[in-house]
Task: structure prediction
Amino acid sequence: MTSLKQKTIHGLFWNFIETFSSQAIGFISTIILARILFPSDFGLIGMTAIITSLSQVFVDSGFSQALIRKQNCTEKDYNTVFILNVSIAITIYFLIFAVSPYVANFFNQDSLINIIRIISISIVINSFGIIHRTLLTKKIDFKNQAIISLIGSIAGFSISIYMALNGYGVWSLVVRSVSSQIFMVLLLWIISKWRPVFLFSKESFRELFGFGSKLLFVYSLSILFKNVYNVLIGKIYNPSILGLYTNADQMSGLPSGTLTTLYNKVAYPVLSNFQNDNEHLKVYIKKIGQPLLIITFSLMLFLISIADSFIPLLFGNKWISSIPYFKILCIAYMAPILHASNQIIMNIKGRSDYFLNTEILKYILFIPVIILGIYFGIYILLIGFAVHYWIGFFVNAAYSKKLIGYGILEQCKDLFSPLILSITVGFVSYISHLYLNVNEYIFNILFQGIIAIITSYIFVRFSGLFHYHELVKDVKSLIFKKA
Result:
């Protein structure tokens, strides 16, 4: 058990480095590009998001999750999935190439034809590295993944900034996506010694697709749900409004998405060891999840408290109109970390059918939100998005009760303390800003940040939350080990 604990801490550390570094570079590049480019440029990329995101899901088809879950994978398994990944990617690319004029016509944006055709090349490129990344994940080798993501992100960032400064406009965003994928896949092939051979097994396909097919449908619904806003806003309004929304969505989703990705990547392979031990699975879900809940909730509410200074300081006054969008979306993105725990439980127990059922129910409940948003405007659309995200947590939790006895009431009890802490941090930070009454953006943010850190420390240190002493001990042992 000790080795598993050390492996988990080591995985969390390097996965944090990977996720944080790539997200930080993406965040910095977005800030710089937002100051050079216009909201309409980001809006055009937002119109392609549903195509590229959905295509990536179909290329993987849930196979990587199935491989991670399977205890004893064979070369037949890996090669079968590799052949499928690449074949599906190439097929999808040619379909996208053919339908791009119709997509451009739908949005009344002729420039989208070439944008879609070029940015979709990243789908094919990515398919060549899925197995290599899966193998690293199964080994809980996040150190090499961190190095790969860091180099790929820096390369894409550097090229896009150069192009933006030289007047390439929206194409700097297109090339950032494609070039990052090229560098990352090349590095995956260099670091991972696995090489494909033409070995296709119908048995492997049936076994892995039996699990992955339900995840494919679930993830497809998730992508459609997430990107329906891009379609509606792009169609009803214009590229500039969509650009404001996509930037607010990216910035508000960044911290929550980073922590949720960190949680999923590390917790899933580690907790898979307890797939037949409900008691220990439940214990470790709580021990790994609660610290991330506290960090996520506190961070999201803190961002709301500094949004009026944060957005214009980093992106400039042309993005001020996105502040209300940003605040609403921050509330919504407190929920994904809750979804992740319950979805991990379903996947570990091999009940992708439960996963599918919950997603279908959530998207049925989402239909009234879309209708209200169309009739009453973008703010109602975004508020509905936030409410729907939180309702989804209760839907997922009901199935965790069936699987390991971790139901809605118990999860709400575990959720209560982190929520109280985060509300306290956000409220104190916001009130301190009102009483300070200083017009300098940077000073407001620094002051509110200090207040938030002090408030969080006092609350966590003396409330008994977070397994404070155990956490400090683990972090110290990790630091000294690294040293």
